[in-house]
Amino acid sequence: MPAIIGVTSGDAFRERSAEGVPNRPHAALKQDYLDAVAGAGAIPLVVSPEATSATDLVVSRIDGLMLVGGLDVDPANYGEAVLNDTVDPSPQRDALELALLRSALGRRVPILAICRGHQLLNVARGGTLWQDLPTQRPDGLRHSQRGDPHSAGHELQIADGSLLHRIVGSQRLGTNSFHHQAVRALGQGLQPTAWSSDGLVEALEDPTHRYVLGVQWHPEEMLDSASHRALFEALVDAAEERAGKESH
After folding, report:
1. Residue 151: what pLDDT?
2. Quick one: 17 exposed, middle or buried, by C-beta within 10 A (0-12, 13-18, 19+)?
3. Strand pairing of 43-47 and 4-8?
4. Cα 37 to Cα 54: distance, rounded to the nearest angstrom
């Protein structure tokens, strides 16, 4: 039976009203995330904030967890006030994903955390974030590229021997870049394993787990590349391995 990967839903939005039809809230999730999981041979299961009170139950039913991109992590989660009006927190997402992370880490469920998810993984372990890179690191790279999301905006240096290195098979990787926040102080037990040329942490791992990986870019937008597809394939492999052990 294929592995089941829990995928957190994106942030809510309201569609534009048509004549005589009021605005209605929608939950948003890019199809690319679901395609990436399905393409790696697993079944994606969307988990919305309505499941926040039952995250232990959710985690008991899945084989892997993927946290996706979206609005900003609330700075209150790491003891700071909102820096400026570029910071757009999503407290509902925070509550869901922090609870999912705690449960999944405790049960040793494989985790792939993408962009916002990468940042939240760091915060869940007591780390902090740069709230707005253009304001706080004005001399750094531009991390919000313009144009094609399927193309690389910059290149990363990857730590030799890291999980990410073993997955992509290289110490250099071209990635896209669509974020204005990033890892600042590292969370407990996490190791940085990839960096952009301005020294920003672009990947995090927990070496005590089979697969806990945070990546700052969006590999689901780069599925034409075998290196980026490999991140999802490795997640599914780890999930299937865990499911196999639990079935015995």
Report:
1. 80
2. exposed
3. parallel
4. 23
Amino acid at 88: D
Q: Which of 97, 115, 221, 228 is catalytic?
A: 115
pTM: predicted TM-score of the whole model, two decimal places: 0.94
Q: Which of 97, 202, 220, 221 is catalytic?
A: 220
Residue tagged active-site, from 118, 218, 228, 240: 218
Q: Is there a catalytic annotation at residue 179? A: no
Q: Is 246 a catalytic residue?
A: no
- Report pLDDT for 239: 97
C-alpha–C-alpha distance, residues 47 and 36, integer Å: 16
Q: Which of 159, 160, 198 is nearest to 177 (CA)?
A: 198
Quote the tokens at residue 81. Answer: 């006030």
pLDDT at 19: 64
Dig out the tokens for 112 from the structure. 């792939």
- Is 180 a catalytic site residue? no
Q: How many other CB atoms are found less than 10 A from the CB of residue 170? A: 12
